[in-house]
Amino acid sequence: MNLKDLILSLVNDKDYQPMTIKELESYLKVDKYTKKSVHDLLKTLDKEGKIRISNKKRIMPIDEEERKLFGKISLAQGGYGFFISDEEDFEDVFIKKDDLKSAHNNDRVRIGIKRKKEKGRNAEGEVLEILERANEEIVGTFQKNKGFGFVIPDNTNFGEDIYVEQKYTKKAKNKDKVVVEIINYPKNGKPEGRIVEIIGGKNDKNIDVLSSIRSHGLAVEFSKKTKREALYIDQDLSALDYEGRKDLRDLFTVTIDGRDSKDFDDAISIIKEDNYYILYVHIADVSHYVKRSTPIDDDAYERGNSTYLYNIVIPMLPKALSNGICSLNPKEDRLSLSLKMKIDQDGEVKENDFYEAVINSNYRLTYEDVNAYLDDRDESIFEDEKIKQALDNFDELRKILAKKRHKRGSIDFNFSESQIDVSEDGRVLNISKLVRGSGNKLIEEFMLVANETVASLFAYMDFPFIYRIHEKPSEDKIESFKAQLAAMGYTLRGSRLHPKDFQQILEKVEGKDEESIINLLMLRTMQKAKYSNERNLHFGLSTEYYTHFTSPIRRYPDLIVHRLLKKYIRNKLMAMNQTSLAKSLGKSADHLSMTERRSEDTERDIEDLYKCKYMKRFIGDDFYGNISSITEFGMFIELDNTVEGLFMYKFSNHTYDFLEEKLMAFDRDNKAYYKIGDRVKVRVKDVDINQRNIDFDLEVDDETISQ
User: Fold this and answer.
1) Lowest mean pLDDT among 37-41, 195-199, 360-364, 490-494
2) Fewer CB within a 10 Å sphere, N or C end of the chain?
3) How do residues 77-98 score in pLDDT, each as one tens digit?
4) What is the pairing mode between strands 137-145 and 177-184?
5) β-strand partners of 151
6) pTM for this one?
């Protein structure tokens, strides 16, 4: 048992009598060498809400109810805020401005409840203690004055401008985008800071995107050590690289990716034998080039993954690797970690083998061309009959694997994804629905079965591993989803739900106007998938065994899996210290789940930015869309091009009633009812790019009134 577990076990014991820190030191026989570690650990556990250290330095246990009162503050423009608990099933708590006690956005706090939740109203609370300041660095616009300046935060939820003395301005110019470090939070007055970085001028190319990247804490530049190491990466294979590898260069192999892709980390081959399909999934052998604890590896781990922002990509690895020697480019020998699977007509993997291999991809295919061949049966797309035969076999196997997944209850969402076309300098050219064809789907199926096969191998060996898990939805979210479904005329019965129950709802709405909305509502009901060193259910895929193995160029967890697989192939797994490995994998899983969320938040922010920039040119124009959500203050409407905006009926010329139990809105003047999924006509009223808000007016005509 490690020190952390020992302290928690002691404090949470039913017979525990609260000790002071000194008494704990005596109990643990702490010496001068370990004293600091113990103190640091106690501070961490206090911040995490796992213990509480009283004013008299007593170490207090925290019960389940008290644990819910630890979390983060989310500020609103009005100066008030909401408390977001660490416990996912605890509803947000409203905090008045005067009760924030100088807490700022994303600060970690402990609160007390002043008024319990009532129908239609959140519980109300107050900040009792600020455990950790989140916003040590803020991105904003510098406002220069004589002898001093202010930084106006891009995130208006921060609440206040930041005062900067002249000596801390770093010679920033008026209207420059800057990063300011908070150095003082006075009890009275504005936060004080110093400028640590000038991002650029207000008119610089992509300045809004670069500011967003910086505000989310993403590193754009690699470290000097990484850049230096990348200079020495050989772009050609040496004779030594081929040694000990299985030669798979004679296999007919292709990559299938988007037209604009530059890094190819997976390739596929197929052979049809009697009633079996021999599927090879070849993955770039990144671990051959990225060794543990090197500068490139350290940078890759800190980033955790690549981040894709349309016209800007923040790669996990330097281009010399991601677009160079690691990329499975056509007609070039490349090192791979290859998985061979023998799959029967029921989609069962009957046999599997793993190889450190060398491959040579025959063709680089695009989704667009493969979709044209498989879905439109355009025979003129490809001249080589080998490509056509391989694609036909791939598609046959894709359907078999999809049928197997469907049978076990795997949920296949079908909501509208955005296709946003952006120029190099950040102009939004067009926004439309992303079209996914058979080419996209077959790559997805093959990567899914490969990931499951790898996870199953380590699960059956009961060896420490990093899994991709997706926990069951919380009861509160399920009840909310049931209510939304009921408002649209659908029923989801029972409390102990299986993925198949959700799958059946999606089948009922397939092809109907409300299909996209219900898919989106269901997605919002689900928990977020994450990494874990503990095996658990992947609810969405309805499987107990899942990991990420197929994208080591852009995801660090896959690189961890590759390193473990190589140990397995070389019969060196059992030489590893399993206790130490399990602990290390647990720490990595937490970190990599965080980096994934960070990238997703950035990608979502930039998507909203581009949607706002695009829609600004259409102020005053009419569009059709479907109601995606109804609240007490307005209706959210998703347009046919996937852009979502808000109609604030509280401020409209008509009088609306929010019928909470039916999740409907009633227009008293037109005697019209509106429910989720209804198709409506809207006019673009206003666009706030800084706040990422799009406001609509509802255009009432015969088509949009349902009585």
Assistant:
1) 490-494
2) C
3) 667 889 998 877 788 899 988 8
4) antiparallel
5) 142, 162
6) 0.85
Kind of pairing between the strands at 349-360 and 246-247: parallel
d(CA 192, CA 161): 9
Beginning with the edge strand found earlier in the chain, give each strand of the sheet holding 664-667 in spatial order.
656-659, 664-667, 672-675
Here the tokens at position 354 are: 């793993």
DSSP calls for 627-670: EEEE-SS-EEEEETTS-EEEE-GGGSSS-EEEEGGGTEEEETTT
Q: What is the DSSP letter of 343?
A: E
Distance CA 397, CA 399 (A): 5
Which pLDDT does position 560 carry in this prediction? 98
**Is the torsion defined by CA of 380, 383, 388, 389 positive or negative?**
positive
- In whole angstroms, give the CA distance from residue 200 to residue 111: 39
For residue 181 the two structure tokens come to 């470090």
Nearest residue to 24 (alpha-carbon basis) of 48, 64, 53, 49:
53
Burial environment of residue 585 by CB neighbours within 10 A (0 to 12, 13 to 18, 19 or more): buried
Cβ 551 vs Cβ 448: under 8 Å: no
- CA 677 → CA 422, 601, 655, 665, distances in Å? 30, 26, 21, 12
DSSP string, 198-216: EEE-TTSTTHHHHHHHHHT
Question: Using CA of residue 314, residue 320, residue 324, residue 325, what is the dihedral sign?
Answer: negative
